[in-house]
Amino acid sequence: MNIEMIEAAAGRLAGEAVRTPLLSSPFLDEVAGRRVFVKAECLQQTGSFKFRGGWSAVSALPLDERTQGVIAFSSGNHAQGVALAARRHGAPCVILMPADAPRVKIDNTRALGAEVVLYDRATGDRDAIGAALAEARGLTLIKPFDEPLVIAGQGTTGLEIAEQAAEAGIGAADVLVPCGGGGLSSGIALALQAKAPGLRVRTVEPEGFDDVKRSLEAGEILRNERGSGSICDAILTPAPGQLTFPILARLAGPGLSVSDEEALAAMVAAFSRLHIVLEPGGAVALAVALFRPDTVEGEAVIVVASGGNVDPAAFRSALGRFAGA
Amino acid sequence: MNIEMIEAAAGRLAGEAVRTPLLSSPFLDEVAGRRVFVKAECLQQTGSFKFRGGWSAVSALPLDERTQGVIAFSSGNHAQGVALAARRHGAPCVILMPADAPRVKIDNTRALGAEVVLYDRATGDRDAIGAALAEARGLTLIKPFDEPLVIAGQGTTGLEIAEQAAEAGIGAADVLVPCGGGGLSSGIALALQAKAPGLRVRTVEPEGFDDVKRSLEAGEILRNERGSGSICDAILTPAPGQLTFPILARLAGPGLSVSDEEALAAMVAAFSRLHIVLEPGGAVALAVALFRPDTVEGEAVIVVASGGNVDPAAFRSALGRFAGA
């Protein structure tokens, strides 16, 4: 992995990805006690940064492989990102999802042109089913994070942060990044190392699912004990990746975590003050800036708001609880 | 009014206003039956395009006048836009609001550093109170739309639309603009005439408050019969302005209108598909694109999403009704 791979991905993404804005609000600055800048990746195509990695991987495939098609395992943002990238390339796309995935996610992925194959989470072996499908049809697997082309795609977010921070006059700051497997945070870390060395990545996870934070402390890959139980479903990953962890260990500061309550309150603050829609997992970095300011350094902080594909009922409930609505 | 005034305003706004993105979603394209591009001004400073006009006017004042301070009559987006512009210039700012304005709007305007003066809507004469205050303290009145510097500021939205449409390969399209007094739509119309003559402004208003639409049809300024009764409070204005109407009569296509129900449904579509927060009045142009596609021409349509300062309870209610939440 190097900066040239990220810049090459940026070249392939030009005109396809949204250059998402860096937003701010005097109200958030006041809560946080410092200037807060929010990189709004919820405004990205398909509602999350995952489109960057999906496009980066699909667009780099040799034409004969691309024509055969791609496959991804995901019930969430990675599925939609890969599906749209494949459709725009005219490439067949299979998404393997558990049969109990939310109906709206299945429907949305199909509406983006993908063939959704469902498996039984209790009895089916996802990897075996996927491998058999890939073999039978000649599909290329697009992994969600532990894949250099995907990390390079997510890293284009970091190139934009470097430019936008310079425009805003921010030379040194912590850059808080919601973290599942570490594709986004490691990609951004590589980009910032090359383009804005005063900016330092810090990963943010839900409490109880802080495998990256604990792995960084231990200096080795540790796993979460549980696989579910946080509302931040988009960033619940068992363990950091084999490729992403060494990058984070080298470049990132200490890991951070927040409670589900703090993530929901940040989601509502983003609604009221920035007028963006975040999913809980996409709001954890903002939650640190607003509610745990003592864990961050500097006069300004940059947070990535990584995705906005939230269930309307969950959003409605959060508005009721945290906006007095 | 000319394009040079708009370009001068853009120069003064550089580094202050957000260059808001032009967003899209394949899901919206499918509903509309054509490509839909959304200029997300809800992401602007203070949550609406009004910051552009406020900044344009305050920044153009001679230093001695600016130091005396400014005054505006508004309980809504214009108040916040002027207040933040004044604060950043170090200029005193008085906002005259009816005493029955929503508490949150009064609090937000005060939090942006303005002195809020309340008057009784039933017994007080707003213009007389404002004139007396302005006279006593040497304040400059910043009108909400019928003021060349304000129109020039709002017109900077049109400069960005012209650039972004060219980048997206859109040479000809209707540009749908939520319309109250016509400051935003007339400013955009002037900018597009100079920079993207294939793009044509169409005003969008709430049904029953379509003074601009009827005025354009009649060729003279007509007034609304009612002053309240739509949820689209941000764009309920009695009549088009003396400055804005002739510009619209010369440059805009036929006016459009939508129901409150359509505005709410568009607000929810923007939540689900674009991950932006709109107020009902900010969603009326998107509502035309989605729900009245036969009234628009061309293979693509550009809509301005003009503001996002929505009451959380109203938003919550709309999610319940239109997202099945």
UniProtKB/TrEMBL annotation, chains A, B:
Its cofactor is pyridoxal 5'-phosphate. Keywords: Lyase, Pyridoxal phosphate. Residues 18-306 form the Tryptophan synthase beta chain-like PALP domain. Pfam families: PALP (PF00291). This is Threonine/serine dehydratase.
